[in-house]
Amino acid sequence: MHFSVISRVTGILLMLFSLALFSPVLIALLYAESTIPTFALASAITFATGLVLVLFARSRRELRSGDGFLITVLFYVGLGLFGAIPFTLAESVNATFTDAAFESLSGLTTTGATVLTGLDDLPKSILFYRQMLQWLGGMGIIVLAVAILPMLGIGGMQLYRAEAPGPVKDNKLTPRITETAKALWYLYLGLTVACAAAYYLAGMSLFDAVCHAFSTVAIGGFSTHDASIGYFASPAVEAVAIAFMIVSGINFGLHFMVLNRKRPLLYAQDMEVRLYLLVLVAVAALVAWLLTQYPGTSEHPIREGIFQAVSIATTTGYTTSNFSLWPSVAPVLLLFAAFAGGCAGSTAGGIKMIRVLLIYLQGMREIRRLIHPQGIFPVKLGRNRVPGRVLEAVWGFFSVYVIIFLTMVSLLMLISELDFITAFSAVGACLNNLGPGLGAVAENYASLSAEVKWTLTAAMLLGRLEIFTLLVLLTPAFWRR
């Protein structure tokens, strides 16, 4: 373990993040707000800390595979803690450090769970900063850094493998990891610009359009209003949100291939995308039908059913109404849909559709084996045979996921007086990077104790880093390398 190299890389990443911390100053200047010293001080503290870490490091060695895991975790934790500084210093927010850290890490992990209320009255610079955190975390701030670090003499493949979501992480869209990161971010930026333009044309102000584009493409769910997307009460705005949530929930690598080869049919040929769209259509149709069976539940049952189904199933977390109050099984169905989440390689959370598909295919193979004990039944995605190592990794992930989920639910009920529905949905919403839950966390997480908030913060990190990136650091074997 090269701690000097790790210190240097982490310091450089913090220095880069200090630039992002300074950007809300421009919004504060534009709207003549008093938050300029807040963000300037936060940026200075972050930059100075990063500079100290860089000066402390003397080694110029290349990163090793194990270093990437530690840097990824250190950076997300460090960035989340330093990202909490503006929320702590801003008088308009008046947040404790626990609440500030919760809000910051919720943004960076694109969870969207919030402890803040009165968003409509907060300074524009604070609102912009919250949305920007989600945008940076959406594709992965470390993937962005991978495109820059080679210029500083630091290779980035180790970081990319540690941060990139999905069960298979060795495929590169372009021959060099730097070009891969750039390709992903150009695509991400282009999609954000298109989303902002669509929101603006749908009737949002320019500020709201940009801010909501940040959180829509990031599948984050933060809004500049307490009522979320429901504030606009606009079918056009909701249609734009639905379209871009669906697109952002698809593998960005597949988007790149479609654009590069100019072959839209690649979407239809991808089994994960087909399952993803099938689940969205099925959940939306079922929820909309359930709402029509209970007159008075909603003024627009089909419209609200479709919007909430897409928003929750993609783990975005936008709301047009308090879906936790909907009758019958609708709220639970939406929450369970979020467990599957979007496609691997997207900005969505959850287990990922590819894993759900592989678990299903593996289960069907075992049934065939019971019927034909001597038969050989390979698991295939399309025409490609899935290696046994990948299937083992998927089942390993799912097993650890279930254990962690149940452990955290039990822990929350042990250290607090939360009821089962609240504890179950809070852990599910944070581990799947969803945001809104049921019960006491349907609207926000402000009422929870500090112990519960830190536990849920850990769940957010586990979900964003897909569990193993964080858990590997807890094994003695990792530190003996």
What does it look like?
The protein is mainly alpha-helical and 481 residues long. 64% of the residues lie in helices and 1% in strands. It has helices at 3-22, 24-30, 36-56, 65-83, 85-89, 97-108, 124-139, 141-148, 157-163, 177-201, 206-217, 235-248, 252-261, 265-269, 271-292, 301-313, 330-340, 353-371, 388-415, 420-431, 450-464, 468-471, 476-479, and strands at residues 380-381, 384-385. It has a two-stranded antiparallel ribbon. A hairpin with a 2-residue loop joins strand 1 (380-381) and strand 2. Helix 4 (65-83) packs across helix 9 (157-163) and helix 7 (124-139) packs parallel to helix 11 (206-217). The termini are close together. The mean pLDDT is 88.
Features:
mainly alpha
Helical segment count: 23
- Taking the alpha carbons of the first and last residues, their distance comes to 7 Å
Q: How much helicity do the residues have?
A: 55-70%
Query: So what's the overall shape?
Result: globular
Query: What does the largest sheet look like?
Result: 2 strands, antiparallel
- For the largest sheet, list the strands in their spatial order: 1-2
Q: Mean pLDDT, nearest integer?
A: 88
Low-confidence stretches: none
Q: Spell out the helices and strands N to C.
A: HHHHHHHHHHHHHHHHHHEEHHHHH
Radius of gyration (CA) equals 22 Å
Percent of residues in beta strands: under 5%
Number of strands: 2
Structural class: mainly alpha
